[in-house]
Amino acid sequence: MALKLYGLPMSTCTTRVLVCLHEKESEFELVPVNLFEGEHKKAPFLSKNPFGQIPVLEDGDFTLFESRAITAYVAEKYKESGCDLLRHNDLKEAALVKVWMEVESHQYNPAIYHIVYQFFVSPLHGKTPDQAVIDENVEKLGKVLDVYEAQLGKSKYLAGDFYSLADLHHLSYTHYLMKTPWASLINSRPNVKAWWEDISSRPAFKKVAEGMTFGEK
């Protein structure tokens, strides 16, 4: 039975899962959720995720929410297919993947989220982007990327010389960041820029990026 993924093709968290599914060459069905009509805040969707957020994965009678938990599940379930995103055969490499997955979640994402949200989402709500919030988080993200620049001077990817979930988890938000005036945060750091050009050129992401039209007119 094919997996069902509830979400939207331009959603950052949905696309995080979509890229993983394509990397693992998994069969799945994308079930659109109408956010503008508030479908995610009503039954029956709330029975799948009581927090009313996308994405949600259904694997038969098993339901999972939170995009990073879903990617880890998919990478484990299909560990024999596609790219080994969790480094199953090396305990230390697997541990480093987990470290940089945590870094993305707790250091990178909180800063980049606010930049992308203010630039793309606030105008949709009729609000002017809060430049003070953007400036504060540009500074925060710059400091995080300084650490990345040093790390990527030691290895091709964040956890080592291999592509993993640690890298994949950065794709969605960074894709949108590169469409803002603050793309220089990536482009001004040679190692980070090379890493971004590498991971964003992977076929799995290029396939998903075609649907990432948020903010386009």
What does the secondary structure layout of this molecule look like, with pairings?
Elements: E1 3-7, H1 12-23, E2 28-32, H2 45-48, E3 56-59, E4 62-65, H3 67-77, H4 91-121, H5 131-151, H6 165-168, H7 171-177, H8 184-187, H9 190-199, H10 203-209
Parallel strand pairs: 1-2
Antiparallel strand pairs: 1-3, 3-4
Structural class: alpha+beta
Number of extended strands:
4
Content of β-strand: 5-15%
Helices and strands, in N-to-C order? EHEHEEHHHHHHHH
Low-confidence stretches: none
- DSSP helical segment count: 10
Strand order of the largest sheet: 2-1-3-4
Task: Describe it.
There is one protein chain. This protein has 217 residues and is an alpha+beta fold. The chain has helices spanning 12-23, 45-48, 67-77, 91-121, 131-151, 165-168, 171-177, 184-187, 190-199, 203-209, and strands at 3-7, 28-32, 56-59, 62-65. Strands 2-1-3-4 form a four-stranded mixed beta sheet, covered by helices on one side. It is globular and about 45 Å long. The mean pLDDT is 96.
Keywords:
217 residues; alpha+beta; 4 strands
In short:
With 217 residues, this protein is α+β, with helices and mostly antiparallel strands. The chain has helices spanning 12-23, 45-48, 67-77, 91-121, 131-151, 165-168, 171-177, 184-187, 190-199, 203-209, and strands at residues 3-7, 28-32, 56-59, 62-65. The chain is globular, with a radius of gyration of 17 Å.
